[in-house]
Amino acid sequence: MSKLEVNAVSKSFGDNEVLRDVSFSISDGEFVSLLGPSGSGKSTLFRIIGGIAQPSSGTVKLDSKEITGKPGSISYTPQSPSLMPWRTILNNVLLGQEITGSRDEHKALEMIERAGLKGYENSYPHELSGGMKQRVSFIRSMLSPQGLILLDEPFSALDEFTRLDMQKWLLSIWELYQRSILFVTHNIEEALFLSDRIIILSAKPASVKKEFIIPFKRPRDERILLSEEFLQ
Ligand code: ADP
Ligand code: MG
């Protein structure tokens, strides 16, 4: 069954045509990377899928239900994590649930611990490193009930080692919670390592140039092991 269906989405800003007739879908539990050069319209497409921008035409469906232009339908992690500086880590995590009306403090605390952030529940964002803030931002999306997570270049600002650490963590969360993931990146290596399938966008106006199923795809647990071995 398709978790997400993007159907003939086009978007122009004035006479700047950014997206042309973009269509693809994501199955339940699948990890899909959306790859394209900078400026090709990845974040624009992302905001449309996240419901915070309207397409000029086309539709977005989640679990076969149309959600085009409806914010809050899918949990959305923007390119730079925007934690609220005046809220504690726990309250930042709970914010994701407040939006969807499913507050569960016990689960939030458990996820904070799983992310290696035990003891930081009552800290404020400025007390955490970049990688830690990124993990808080993830937890917020992981706890949302929709089962689809959108990540827009989440690791692009991190150094290589922190990045690998975060990739490992993301894979283990994916394994554990069986989410579908749409991961936007311009890093080909990262897409090859993480995903089940890669969707490549052509340069502006972007449309789907190619869908690439990774032929030598490793099982999830092997991907986790590989990054663990490298980090040791
Ligand atoms: P990417 O994420 O692939 O780097 P973006 O989606 O950020 O690309 O940008 C694609 C194009 O869309 C750029 O030409 C950018 O100027 C334009 N664009 C994005 N958002 C807006 C906006 N809110 N208003 C006008 N133009 C925009
Ligand atoms: Mg972008």
Automatic annotation (TrEMBL):
<dbReference type="GO" id="GO:0005524">
    <property type="term" value="F:ATP binding"/>
</dbReference>
<dbReference type="Pfam" id="PF00005">
    <property type="entry name" value="ABC_tran"/>
</dbReference>
<dbReference type="InterPro" id="IPR017871">
    <property type="entry name" value="ABC_transporter-like_CS"/>
</dbReference>
<keyword id="KW-0813">Transport</keyword>
<keyword id="KW-0547">Nucleotide-binding</keyword>
<dbReference type="InterPro" id="IPR027417">
    <property type="entry name" value="P-loop_NTPase"/>
</dbReference>
<dbReference type="InterPro" id="IPR003439">
    <property type="entry name" value="ABC_transporter-like_ATP-bd"/>
</dbReference>
<dbReference type="InterPro" id="IPR050166">
    <property type="entry name" value="ABC_transporter_ATP-bind"/>
</dbReference>
<keyword id="KW-0067">ATP-binding</keyword>
<dbReference type="GO" id="GO:0016887">
    <property type="term" value="F:ATP hydrolysis activity"/>
</dbReference>
<protein>
    <submittedName>
        <fullName>ABC transporter ATP-binding protein</fullName>
    </submittedName>
</protein>
<feature type="domain" description="ABC transporter">
    <location>
        <begin position="4"/>
        <end position="228"/>
    </location>
</feature>
<dbReference type="InterPro" id="IPR003593">
    <property type="entry name" value="AAA+_ATPase"/>
</dbReference>
